[in-house]
Amino acid sequence: MNLKHKTTEEYQGFEQGPIRPPSEAYSLLVRVTRNCPWNRCTFCPVYKDSRFSIRPKNHVIKDIDSVYRSVEIIQKTAQEEGKVPLADIRKAAGDRDNVDPLAFNAALNWIRGGMRSVFIQDANSLIIKPKDLVEILTHLKMRFPWVERITSYARSHTIARISDDNLKAIRNAGLNRIHIGLESGSNKVLKMTRKGITKETHIKAGRKIKKAGMELSEYVMPGLGGKAYSKEHALETADALNQINPDFIRLRTLAIPDSVALYGDYESGRFEKCSDLMMAEETLLFIESLNGITSVLKSDHILNLFQNLEGKLPEDKEHMLDIVRRFLAMTPDRQCVYQVGRRLGYFLRLSDMDNSRRLERAENACRQFGITPENVDEVIDELMKRFI
Ligand code: SF4
Fold this sequence. Notes:
Largest sheet: 8 strands, mixed
Bound molecules: iron/sulfur cluster
Shape: globular
Low-confidence stretches: 1-6
Order of helices and strands: EEEHHHEHEHHEHHEHEHHEEHHHH
Number of strands: 10
Strand content: 5-15%
Strand order of the largest sheet: 1-4-5-6-7-8-9-10
């Protein structure tokens, strides 16, 4: 794969990529690369048909300067006028030359979010030359010295190839958290889904990030092993994480939209998707198998069955297990109502079923659409596609 960018590429203005982790909702997004250099994972719909490229360093610096200018204008207008309507702020920007409207909007949203964090895009920013990344980070810190957190997605494959010294230099320049799509610790599952990585490399990369003094957030995908590897997926993923001890473990349940390669296997029956019930059993086994680590587990994604499955290991382990056990102990009818209510946004957690208004809405939906324990998983599949 040719990773070189065209040095002749002209600057087209401020850019932002399509995604960021849920925890970066208030971050300024700074796009260093476009799309994903791997782009082969069979479950991933994000960058399909989009070519990977590295943005010229001076273009990224221009983006940062555009946001800086916009922040200055907005703050100055607010200081001079007191609390000002948005229209006046926009007019103040419109009266100046060289204000990039996209950078201006990004600055406005960032100011509203408190300007505390920055997320470097897209899927694997650490693939660029370490010295370029250090330069970009240094410029970012020079412009916005108050920023507390700068984070990025990265592939374990890429991290494993960066020297410890370079990782340390990147850390010292300001990058203090990395999000890794671990997805699974099972080599069978990683191979089946073309993740392009092994469990061993995941562990090596995770440990390197921690050694460099950065926070590490590992994403796990419940359901990715399908029925065939559900148990192995849970056990091997927990084992990999036990060897890494990341700061955060984040759950993001598998969904299979028809745009991904895995959909063909699912349609043909080669990949048998876990039901919600199996997914809950897998999650129970996964959490039971997390041992000797101090990670914070989070379930901050709409696709997950339990949004409150959250806590610090080891002290909150029993509390988290109890949430899953309570669901598994419910009658099939009640499980069905919870599944539907959760995916329609009526419930975030099991205790929301105690709210009679919410419960009634979920029960009405089941009645209206003829959803029963027998067909609930098909309906859930359709609902989940909406959230991808
Ligand atoms: S590495 Fe990440 S962004 Fe790239 S295809 Fe795989 S899951 Fe998608």
